[in-house]
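Subject line: Sequence and fold of a protein, written as structure tokens
Enclosed: The protein record, placed directly beneath this head.
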Amino acid sequence: MFSVSHWIAISLVACFCVILFGLRRAIRSNPGLKQSIRLLLVAVLLFSEGGLQLWYITQEVWEKGNSLPLELCGITLLLSIVMLLTRSRLLYAFLYFAGIGGAFIALLTPNLVYPFPHFRFLLFFTAHGGIILASLYMTWIEGYKPTWKSLFFTMLCLNIVAAAVYAADRILGANYMFLAHKPGTFSVLDYFGPYPYYLLVEEVFAFVVFLLMYLVFFWFPQRLNARKSGREHTL
């Protein structure tokens, strides 16, 4: 973590986000380009999960306890594919917060033991970058926006997902979503106390991150634009 290759990978993801934002008007005005980018994101996400599963199988390391897409980012990756294909507003309401927030934290503190240029390293950053870009595409290109309701909807869905994954963990003897214990590599969970208290702190942390994502990028800009419009109207 925070090696040169890690910083380069994060920077590349950030560059793609900046490029998407910078070209948002051109993409919106070109239906063919718009569809191509949407399908490209679908292909990138499919390749990421398909490539990971293929690697598990070819390396003969596939195990039900750690190879299923039951981590939060694995779940949001699959849901992002469905969202892009269906343009589902319901999935967007969940993925703007859980997808971007979860993938962003994962990019900063990757639970990864394979260094660059290992295939797993490349897949990890491609997958998490793709999750972020999928929701940003729906925001900047399709014009979707989160609301206060979607923030609380996301928290409710996360708890439902966690309960289902916890049940799967018990059945499989696994630790998906780190619901049984912390990961072996460094993560933000190391600051949240021992098990099971870190699960409660994690929930508060998630809510604060999601709240900031809404306030900084939507609520405050909307208030500023409303005040600006009011002043112009008065003048």
